[in-house]
Write a structure and sequence with these properties.
heterodimer, A: mainly alpha, 18 helices, 72% helix, B: alpha/beta, Rossmann fold, six-stranded mixed β-sheet, 17 helices, 24 strands, 27% strand
Chain lengths: 434, 504
């Protein structure tokens, strides 16, 4: 119901024919179905953003391909033909690298041969493997957004958690897996959580803006990792390489295909999905979640309602850091099994994009992470087969983020209607903090 | 002679709202036309169309019989239309002359500002219309009433002869209102024409030559002050009969509930905002705190509710010392607080009605069990309060951002007044609301009093304080200028106290 009708009924005599009954009178959808429709509508912009970014990506491929220019020299018809074949080849490689070749998957499934099936589904498993750390990091930033905090420090929290996890992984020996693995995961979460809580404390106590402090904490974390893992550093393996020792097998995250080392997907993905559900439950089903979201949406109202804004800020940042930390822990315990000095893969920074793309909702973040996982996996294949540089993915990712952050562009482009004010989720308050 | 301004069939649609529906309007030269209507009736939209900020979907505008199209404020100014907005557009640190010159500076020798010439012209205008404005004064040093005249001078300096005044009395003391009325009379006597936007019936009756009433985007009638009175205008505005006085019996004051002693509180700029206030509110009485906005009322309420630190002095609620206690502790002592700025402090706009009605009780049973929210209990509470307090919302799950201002306020009132409390603080409880909602909220506050709670109402609206309160304190510059019994309070006495004159 819009403001006008609300105002109208205000003026009318004291008859109250609202709620479901009035909805029925106006021939609207019942409440439940209306909500589903609203959720679907909120997916329209991200979907169109992805499509538009891929279209522009295709143009970039065409414009940077010399053979296309040459073909246009021979005639417009040939040029167009060449351009479309270049795009088909690049995106064909891209999609089969991200999702696999559907024909091949089906034939493999019918053949019933293990090796064939594994080969066919390999691209899909890579997509899932890459999206696992993305989910944790995306959840970290999304949780911060829900609490009105901009955690740019996921990358630093990731490094610190990596150090702690790998240390527990190689230095603690003689434990059974059922204790060692959870201990290593917990260590990572605590490490990242402390790294996140520090800027939270600084904000709560002194009002220092978390954007500045998380960035600074990033640099400290990077240098700390460099020091620890330097060829002669305290955590180096000792063979002259700047990497940590291998962790104990008792700390490994179990693999889905333990006998196929090329398939790297592991139970970390299940853990990620479970944690996403846990974050959703925390945010929407608990009083703490209500506090986090209230402080995020309106800190003045939170104070008025008797909540401790400072305490909530610290808790939010600590939880956010812990989630970012799990991103590193699962990568080390599930895939790498050691920590290299050059550990960064930019998960912590991409996480900001993931949270925006997923509208700061845990399940949105999972979908966005699968998409980014697919983009990365597809890009590798595209480079190998179609010789299109991996950097194209960065362009596509960047465009998606621009379109999500400025949905007005998409709305103008596709002539969509303005949304109702409340459909938009306010993610971050201004830089002024408060 | 054609009217100086004529609107024909002006229609403006916003998505889902018909803001103006074929409105016709005529303004004769030398006339004051009052545009009366509740919030959301379409007054501001109509005037923004005239000022070129919106374009009408249908309809025509004629100035002195000639059809015009207005594409922006500069067009409007060229056609002699000027507007004084509710919020002044002045630069506080500049002088009156500099403010008036902004945008149309007189220049000497190609690059030097000719302040002398501008200042001379301002003095002429001021004398001609009896505005009494010193061109050399710095704007931030001037009282609000004079700042408003600076806005009027800006228009006259640009040769406007149709002046639109948008809710000009909202920020003025009663004495300043009298001054404004004198200025407007002098303007029209010398041939200017004025459109006066208001929802206050008294002023409209006193000032205007003709009254046009808007309701829900439509013009529902045109009348003159001679043919109408407050009651008839109010029912035209609202569309039904309205009770203008708050029906209430005599108060039966009981024990002291709120006891404030020598309270000193600092404002946002570290300046002392409340300087040594002492007063008491008893159970079963409504005390009204009157005063022009910005005289310490906001800080007083925030200090009592724990939202602002107390520098010195003491606050007692029901015998407990709650000086500098946490907002939650004060709430738990049995305090309800309807905050001054409902959207900034009192609501989370993106939350549903249901999640707003538990904003300060979300952590106690039945709304929470341990760390878990109990959505069923929350929904039941929402359904009950929506019914009991007559909140017009499509569903308890609707975000409050989508409700009208009156219904947003009802959500807060429902949340605060449904709790068993001994003290109720209400700051500007009906600001910006329509007559229907005001009536309702006043009745609820009186009901709370009759149940035995102590009620403190802070309001800048004299009518509200006089209608509601059993005793009235008048605040001026952080002090209590005087305390009057409701029976002995008149507008004049209160007005003088509000202006800091301690003769009452």
């Amino acid at each position: 119901m819009d403001r006008k009708t609300a105002a109208e009924s205000n003026v009318k005599a004291p008859e109250r024919a609202l709620g479901d009954e009035a909805d029925r009178v106006r021939g609207r959808l019942p409440r439940g179905r209306r909500r589903t429709r609203g959720r679907l509508r909120s997916l329209v912009i991200p979907f169109l953003a992805i499509v538009t970014a891929l279209i522009i990506g295709a143009l970039v491929i065409v414009f940077t391909d010399e053979t296309v220019y040459a073909a246009f020299g021979d005639g417009v018809g040939r040029g167009v033909a060449r351009a479309s074949s270049v795009i088909t080849r690049a995106y064909g490689a891209f999609f089969s690298g991200a999702l696999g070749n559907p024909v091949r998957i089906i034939t493999a499934l019918f053949s019933g041969q293990g090796t064939q099936i594994r080969r066919a589904i390999y691209p899909l498993t890579e997509t899932i493997r890459i999206s696992t750390p993305y989910i944790f990091a995306g959840l970290a930033v999304a949780l911060g957004f829900q609490g009105g905090l901009f955690n740019i420090g996921a990358e630093g929290q990731y490094f610190v958690a990596g150090l702690v996890t790998v240390f527990v992984g190689y230095a603690v020996t003689g434990l059974p897996g059922i204790i060692h693995l959870p201990l290593a995961l917990l260590a990572g979460a605590v490490g990242g959580g402390i790294w996140g809580a520090i800027p939270g404390l600084l904000k709560a106590k002194t009002g220092a803006h978390e954007v500045i402090n998380t960035i600074m904490m990033n640099y400290i974390a990077f240098r700390l990792a460099e020091f620890m893992l330097d060829a002669n550093g305290p955590m180096a393996r000792g063979d002259g390489r700047p990497v940590s020792p291998e962790i104990q097998p008792s700390a490994y995250l179990p693999q889905f295909f333990p006998n196929q080392i090329e398939i790297r997907v592991n139970t970390g993905f299940l853990l990620a999905l479970a944690v996403a559900v846990l974050v959703w439950w925390l945010l929407y089903k608990t009083t703490l979640g209500y506090e986090i979201r209230t402080v995020g949406a309106n800190p003045r109202a939170a104070r008025y309602a008797g909540m401790s804004v400072a305490r909530t800020v610290v808790i939010t940042m600590a939880l956010s850091g812990a989630l970012a930390g799990l991103s590193a822990s699962t990568d080390i315990l599930g895939v790498l099994h050691f920590m290299p000095n050059a550990f960064s893969s930019g998960y912590g920074f991409d996480a900001i994009a993931l949270a925006l793309l997923g509208k700061s909702h845990p399940f949105g973040v999972v979908l966005a992470s699968l998409l980014f996982g697919a983009l990365r996996a597809g890009a590798q294949n595209m480079q190998g087969i179609a010789q299109v540089p991996v950097d194209l993915t960065s362009i596509v990712q960047g465009l998606i983020i621009v379109f999500i952050a400025a949905p007005e562009i998409i709305r103008k482009l596709y002539r969509l209607r303005q949304p109702v004010a409340s459909d938009e989720l306010v993610t971050v308050r201004g830089w002024g903090g408060a | 002679m054609p009217p100086v301004l004529q609107l024909r069939g002006i229609t403006k649609r916003f998505p889902g709202v018909l803001a103006n529906d074929h409105i016709d309007l005529e303004l004769e030269e030398g006339q004051v036309l009052a545009l009366l209507g509740e919030n959301g009736a379409g007054k501001s939209t109509l005037m923004n169309i005239l000022y070129g900020l919106y374009h009408p979907d249908e309809g025509e505008i004629y100035i002195r019989g000639e059809k015009v199209s207005i594409h922006g404020p500069s067009d409007a100014i060229r056609l002699g239309i000027g507007m004084v907005h509710q919020h002044f557009m002045l630069v506080p640190v500049l002088t009156v002359t500099e403010n008036v010159m902004l945008g149309m500076e007189s220049i000497r020798n190609g690059m030097v500002l000719d302040r002398t010439k501008a200042s001379k012209r301002i003095r002429e205008i001021s004398d001609q219309y009896g505005l009494e404005v010193d061109p050399e004064a710095t704007v931030e040093d001037l009282p609000v009433g004079i700042q408003q005249r600076v806005e009027i001078i800006k228009l006259l300096y640009r040769n406007a002869d149709i002046l639109i005044l948008d809710e000009p009395t909202a920020v003025l003391t009663p004495q300043e209102v009298t001054g404004l009325i004198r200025v407007v009379r002098s303007l029209v006597a010398q041939g200017k024409s004025v459109v006066f936007i208001s929802h206050k019936l008294k002023e409209v009756l006193e000032l205007s030559d003709r009254i046009v009433v808007l309701r829900r985007g439509r013009s529902v009638g045109s009348t003159t002050p001679e043919e109408s009175d407050e009651r008839s205008l109010a029912s035209m505005m609202v569309g039904r009969d309205v009770i203008l006085e708050v029906p209430k019996g005599p108060a039966h004051p009981g024990d002291v509930v709120l006891d404030v002693q020598d309270l000193v509180v600092k404002g946002d700029q570290e300046k002392v905002a409340v300087s040594g206030i002492s007063f008491q509110v008893r159970g079963g009485e409504i005390v009204g705190a009157a005063g022009v906005q910005g005289n310490g009322q906001t800080e007083l309420v925030e200090a009592i509710t724990g939202l602002r630190p107390v520098e010195s002095g003491r606050v007692m609620i029901g015998g407990h010392d709650v000086t500098n206690a946490s907002p939650r502790a004060i709430t738990e002592f049995g305090t309800a607080h309807v905050p001054e700025d409902r959207q900034r402090d009192g609501l989370v706009l993106s939350y549903s009605v249901a999640h707003n009605v538990i904003l300060n009780t979300y952590y106690v049973p039945p709304f929470a069990r341990g760390p878990l929210m109990q959505e069923t209990a929350v929904a039941r509470q929402a359904d009950q309060l929506i019914a009991q307090f007559d909140v017009r919302t499509p569903s308890p799950q609707t975000p409050v951002a989508n409700l009208s201002g009156g219904n947003q306020q009802k959500v807060i009132v429902a949340r605060e007044l449904s709790r068993p409390v001994q003290l109720t603080l209400a700051s500007q409880p009906t600001r910006g609301l329509d007559v229907g909602s005001i009536e309702y909220i006043h009745a609820q506050l009186v009901k709370k009093r009759d149940e035995g709670a102590a009620v403190l109402v802070v309001s800048a609206e004299l009518d509200e304080v006089m209608a509601l309160a059993d005793r009235i304190l008048v605040m001026y510059e952080g002090r209590i200028m005087g305390t009057l019994d409701a029976t002995e309070a008149t507008r004049e006495r209160l007005g003088l106290l509000m202006a800091g004159v301690a003769t009452a």
